[in-house]
Amino acid sequence: MSIKVVPRYGKTFKEKLYLPAIAGGMKTTFKHFVKNLRNVDSVNTMQYPEVQPTDITDRYRGVHRLTTHEDGSEKCVACYMCATACPAECIFIEAEERFDGVDEKRPKEFKIDLLECVFCGYCVEACPCDAIRMDTGIFSFTASKREDFVLDKKALMNNKRSKDFE
Question: Which end of the chain is least crowded, N or C, by CB within 10 Å?
Answer without folding.
Answer: N
